[in-house]
Amino acid sequence: MLKKSDFLIFILIVFMALAGTLAYLGSAAGNSGKDVNGEEPGGNGNYTAGLLSGVSSIVPVVADSRETIQLPVLMYHGITDISASVNEYTILSDTFEEDLIWLGKNGFTTITVKQLVDYVEKGSSLPDKPVLITFDDGYANNYAFAFPLLQKYHMHAVISVIGDKADESSGDMYRKLSNSSLSWGEIALLASSGNVEIGNHTYSLHSSAGERKGANMKAGEDSHEYEAILRQDLSSLQEKIAEATGSQPLLFAWPYGEYPKDGSADEILKDLGFKVTVTSYQKINTIEMGNPDSLFGLKRFLRTPDFDMDKILG
């Protein structure tokens, strides 16, 4: 028969175990970071929003009940800390940080390309208000200025790189952040961070000179010839990115937003392993669960210096 003293010792042990567990949980919560406003937990009630900004880093396993979602896609290019360098395709790092804060405050959660594909193909859950952040051209200043802010606010983006530009940058000891591309080493570091996915922006077709604009078909070009050129270029970059990051991109960004309007290139891209393509037309997208074609030709909002987030996404 259990003695009274033994029973009291048992109760004491249980109490101490519970106290230790509560202390550990309290410590973990207190060390989880700042909110979307850069403030410590408990500052102004926005700590929960800060935690929610990192939801997209968790692979969803719960089914989504929505048959369609509305997806805004933001398109950035260069980021700078010099006001004189701001132009239509380059914004200040402070402006980019304000965008991330605005998204968090207004209930948006950045998602990865993989999450988007899983929603369409598997019915996996997405946040209530998903948004996809994209960068075109793969400038070195994306690593210097945008990447630290994505880490700070636990957000995600996909940076689509140009192969031959990355080759040049990797051997340039005197490159400038304003117009140089990411090196292959930086691309590898970004991909391993969990905050950034790498997209394909062609190996050497990012040009508007001559008869071809970007990766689009030339006027009067033979379809078989065009397919061979497109396949060779994109597959070369897919392989090079895989060497640097360990995986091939799921997303292809059409240079200048130019692409065959008849959709003739879509099957080529699918055969190369692409699940998502993005253009430059400014509109919110409707994504359909179970319809992979709804991920092709996604529209994007170009983030210019005078872009008004409230008017576009508010």
Labels describing this entry:
alpha/beta, globular, 314 residues, 6-stranded parallel beta sheet
- From the alpha carbons, calculate the radius of gyration and give it in angstroms: 23 Å
End-to-end distance: 69 Å
| Estimated helix fraction | 25-40%
Inertia-based shape: globular
Counted beta strands = 12
List the uncertain runs. Answer: 12-17, 19-60
Beta-strand content estimate: 5-15%
- The overall average pLDDT, rounded, is 86
Major sheet attributes? 6 strands, parallel
Helices and strands, in order, run as HHEEEEHEHEHEHHEHEHEEEH
Give the helix/strand class. alpha/beta
Query: Helix tally?
Result: 10
How would you describe this protein?
It is a single chain. 39% of the residues lie in helices and 15% in strands. The chain has helices spanning 4-30, 47-52, 93-105, 113-122, 140-152, 163-170, 184-193, 223-245, 266-271, 309-313; strands at residues 68-71, 73-76, 78-80, 90-92, 109-110, 130-137, 157-161, 196-200, 251-253, 276-278, 285-288, 301-302. The strands form 4 sheets. Strands 2, 5, 6, 7, 8 and 12 form a 6-stranded parallel β-sheet that branches. It has a two-stranded antiparallel ribbon with strand order 1-11. Helix 3 (93-105) packs parallel to helix 5. The protein is globular and about 50 Å long. The protein starts with a helix and ends with a helix.
